[in-house]
Amino acid sequence: MNHHPMKKLLGLLLGLLATPGLSQEPVVNTEIVTIALNDSVAGLFFNNGKSVSQFQANPTGIGEPLKYKGSPRFELRTSEAEFSLKPPLPAPHAWVTLPANSDRVLLACLKSGDSTVKLVAYDIGRARIGEGDYRFFNFSRSLISVIFGEKKLAVKSGEDALMSDASWRKEVGEIDIAMAIVKDGRVKPVYSSQWGHRPGRRNYIFMFDGAHDYKPIKICRFFDVPPAEPETTKP
Question: What's the confidence (pLDDT) of residue 185?
Answer without folding.
Answer: 80
